[in-house]
Design brief:
Layout (H helix, E strand, L loop, with lengths): L5 E6 L4 H10 L5 E6 L9 H11 L3 E4 L8 H4 L1 H21 L3 E7 L22 H16 L3 E6 L2 E2 L6 H11 L3 E4 L3 E2 L2 E2 H16 L9 E4 L6 E2 H11 L6 E4 L19 H7 L6 H15 L1
Parallel strand pairs: 1-2, 1-3, 3-4, 4-5, 5-10, 6-9, 7-12
Antiparallel strand pairs: 8-11
Helix pairs in contact: 1-7, 2-4, 4-5
Length: 297
């Protein structure tokens, strides 16, 4: 017999996405959340994960923990692989053992397509950085290990929390310095709160049997529409009423250790048709995030 609430274990609770789940937790009385940061639960320790699962007996495991510093991953390959692949394998293996639904997050970087058309879940994956390779491998170990799993590929994540592009732009804007942002990388900004809300909607449908889950499922999810980093920055400053001298530059003028994809626009037909999800237009969510940050200052 199902319990009154869906018991959910959330790792990476102090990151952007984890804090976004914390923010909305009290608004969703169908779920009972158990949040874990690194100090509370080391996801690289399989025995610790198993012990905690046996203690709280969750029905769902939301894995928000990840190594997300794309450039640092080029130099810290072992740590990147341990967190994004080995730890994910531990989680998937233990979730299978206890028949727990695993919800995991991946990246648009796994595609690295230059086709110029929206990438769906069947588009070939050709990761070009060590971070991207680790995220793709995390998907593969889940697919091979845990049949009750959903993997969400998302892009350009931002929030009110931690470090991200939106907050960096606002900080630079306040300093009044000239700003240069690349204008030839195209994708879609995605609000972490929207990711969290969408995740809970999907989990509810799966756990209550509205949408059966037979095999691991990969879905794309991002803000609706598309833009480039320069235009994204311009909209951030517009919403924040900040005047800056903003220039667009090609990627070649802003070299990074890790290669970024020039095209990251994902097709979201599957998540829309399967779960009835209607992603918000990216500008709407950016404005919402900035309004929240403005109220907090």
């Amino acid at each position: 017999m199902r319990r009154d609430k869906i018991e959910v274990l959330v790792t990476g609770a102090n990151g952007q996405l984890g804090q976004s789940f914390r923010k909305i937790a009290n608004q969703h009385d169908k779920f009972a959340f158990h949040f874990y940061g690194l100090k509370e639960l080391d996801i690289t320790d399989g025995s610790a994960i198993n012990k905690e699962i046996e203690s709280i007996n969750p029905e769902v495991f939301i894995n928000c923990a990840a190594y997300t510093n794309v450039d640092d991953a080029e130099d810290n390959e072992e740590t990147n692989w341990t967190v994004n692949v080995i730890a994910t394998h531990n989680i998937a293996r233990i979730c299978k053992k206890h028949n727990i639904l695993l919800f995991h997050y991946s990246s648009d970087y796994v595609y690295h397509s230059i086709e110029g058309k929206k990438m769906d879940e069947r588009t070939a994956t050709t990761p070009q950085s060590k971070y991207a390779a680790s995220k793709l491998r995390s998907e593969e170990v889940i697919d091979a290990t845990s049949p009750r799993a959903i993997i969400m590929r998302t892009s350009w994540v931002y929030s009110e929390f931690r470090h991200n592009f939106l907050k960096t732009m606002l900080s630079l804007g306040k300093r009044g310095k000239d700003i240069k942002v690349v204008n030839d990388q195209i994708g879609a900004p995605t609000f972490a709160t929207d990711i969290a809300l969408t995740t809970l909607s999907i989990i509810e449908q799966v756990e209550y049997g509205t949408v059966p889950l037979i095999n691991p499922l990969i879905v794309n999810y991002a803000g609706e529409g598309q833009t480039n980093w320069h235009a994204y920055a311009a909209y951030i400053f517009k919403c924040a009423n900040v005047e800056v001298n903003l220039a667009g530059i090609p990627s070649e003028e802003y070299p990074t250790k890790a290669i970024r994809p020039k095209w990251s626009v994902m097709d979201m037909t599957l998540i829309k048709s399967t779960f009835g999800i209607a992603p918000k237009y990216w500008k709407e969510s950016v404005k919402e995030c900035i309004e929240t940050l403005t109220k907090e200052t």
